[in-house]
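Hey,
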Amino acid sequence: MVDTPPVTPARRSDATRGAILAAARERFAADGYERATIRAIARDAGIDPSMVMRYYGSKEGLFAAVLDVDLRLPGMEGVGPREAGRVLVSHFLDLWEENHDVLTAMLRVGVTNRAAAEGMQGVFRDQIVPLARRVCPDPGQAATRAALTASQMLGLALTRYVLRLPPTVALTREEIVRWLGPTVQRYLTAPDPG
């Protein structure tokens, strides 16, 4: 007989937080911010609603925790100047497939909720702009180039994962990289068209 270590309060707390976040991601993705309720999230997590409030304080606090996403953007060191678009699109597809619920919730709720929009703006400011700054020819244009890149990535996400437009859903990963990679590449590294 194998002895199992006792469940410590810290491990139980981490498990409860994880269950709440998993349930919240699914609920926000399915129902949107306004329709998702603490009671429904708690029911999905198999806990009392007071536990959600204990750990996150409010629905807004819980949603902020759901939106705390690290895009794990690739470093561009060692990536050839003509490969940045392809690498970024490939990474985005991997990330979306691995974190579908979180990113779908961000996208759906971000267009209707100010707090969600601010969370997405923070991800853009803190993660996407620095990446653009590393690869674009004029670091002063990094925010503009990052915004154009984000418009392509979010447009793809909206049509493929949220609206599920059949032609976009039917594209293979390789086709998406072939079509979208050069556009993202142009946004990041092409000379200023002005």
